[in-house]
Specification:
Length: 84
């Protein structure tokens, strides 16, 4: 699925009542909604900035991995760069 800019009816970024982390909701013209947790958008932005600003990198792959010895206050599930 390719989502074009004109396919998006509304995008809402907010910290919902009772929560500490950002949620981003994308509402398409057909009424479909996608809700992304903060970490998902953060990873998308990280990948985007890497490819957009690096002089030679043209592709980055982030793969989900469970990190058994993750740092305190960090989720066990992380998106980690994988280079080809």
């Amino acid at each position: 699925m390719i989502i074009h800019n004109e396919d998006i009816k509304e995008l809402v970024a907010e910290i919902p009542e009772g929560h500490r982390h950002l949620r981003t909701t994308v509402v398409l013209q057909d009424g479909a909604e996608f809700v992304f947790q903060e970490a998902a958008i953060g990873n998308l932005v990280r990948a985007y900035i890497t490819v957009k600003t690096h002089p030679t990198i043209k592709k980055v792959i982030l793969k989900g991995k469970k990190i058994a010895d993750s740092k305190e206050d960090f989720a066990e599930w992380q998106m980690v760069e994988e280079w080809e």
